[in-house]
Amino acid sequence: MAQGPAEEGRLRLIRGLTLLELVLVLVILAVAGAVAMPYYLASLPNRRAAAATRQVVTDLRRARTLAVESGEPVYVVFEAGTSVYRIVLEADGVAGPSAGDETDREVALTDQFPGVVLGSTVVADPITFQDDVAVFRPRGTSNGGSVVLRVPGRATAERKVTVLSTTGRVRAYTWNPATGRWE
Q: What is the C-alpha to C-alpha distance for residues 136 and 88, in angstroms, rounded to an integer?
């Protein structure tokens, strides 16, 4: 029995792609990937700085919550030279972080967020908490201060996390080199 034009069209659709069509699609995808890759790689340091900032903000807010819930001070100890900070729970009754206190969490920024360090090219002192320790009290207040995170060589990747003393509120800012301000 002879096949009509409608049946031949259906058979052609069922056959699938030719090798040439498949290779053409792969070439187009490879070119698109090659064009997009430099933009993606250039954005990584800023994304890491943003993620590290969110982590510090979350941990400072958690420390405040722990202080309110436990009725005891909670300390966040920043070690500028190592880009490490620890959340320390008051356990021994001695004011300030001491050997008898319990470490709730320790974060090494450079391990979790490669290239991000505690430091600044904009301000002289990247950690303004007294003795590099943020103190959260049971009423939710704090000693107030800030910590600056940066990616060396990237002015747009400098971030500051500030804690208000009267309320313990934690807020993050990004340095804008065009305006010369934290925004």
A: 10
Nearest Cα neighbor of 72 from 100, 106, 44, 53 is 100
The reply to whether 10 falls in a domain is no
Structure tokens at 167: 């309320």
CB of 132 within 8 A of CB of 77?
yes
Tokens of 42: 């250039």
Domain that holds residue 66: 19-182
- 120 within domain boundaries: yes
127, 116 in Cβ contact below 8 A? no
Q: Considering the entire predicted model, what is its pTM?
A: 0.79
C-beta of residue 131 within 8 angstroms of C-beta of residue 88: no
Tell me the residue length of the chain. Answer: 183
Question: For residue 124, what pLDDT band results from cuts at 50, 70 and 90?
Answer: confident
State both tokens at 149: 């995170």
Would residue 88 count as lying in a domain? yes
**How much is the mean pLDDT over the chain?**
87
